[in-house]
Specification:
Elements (H helix, E strand, L loop, with lengths): L3 E5 L6 E5 L34 H10 L7 H10 L11 H16 L5 E5 L2 E4 L4
Antiparallel strand pairs: 1-2, 3-4
Helix pairs in contact: 1-2, 2-3
Protein name: HTH HARE-type domain-containing protein
Keywords: Transcription
Pfam families: HARE-HTH
Amino acid sequence: MPHVEVIECPILGEHIGRRTDEKPNNERDDTMATQQTTSKKVTPEKATAPRPSVINAAAKVLSGSKEPLTAKQMIEQMAAEKLWNSLSGKTPDATLYAEILQEIQSKGNDSRFVKVDRDHFGTNQSH
């Protein structure tokens, strides 16, 4: 059972109780908490080639395709060939579509892609 010390409050002028096993707020506790650490053996991961970006993987898929593909078809082929997969994205085909359009717009004739039909892309033969 904790001990209680009765002291007079200088502000209120009343007697109040304070546990003697606690330190008053104005006293600083200089003891530091120690943290136990466990040593884990860190093993190096297998050296793997860096994962290609989605647009580079799409260029590779399109170069092997005989016909134009949609962004969704490219994403499916990339996953099947294990070139690229979406780790957490909900609409990777929309992202790929936007990136391809951005490259076509920014690079013009130097783009690796060409828009063949609505939502269908092919490789730029002049590239």
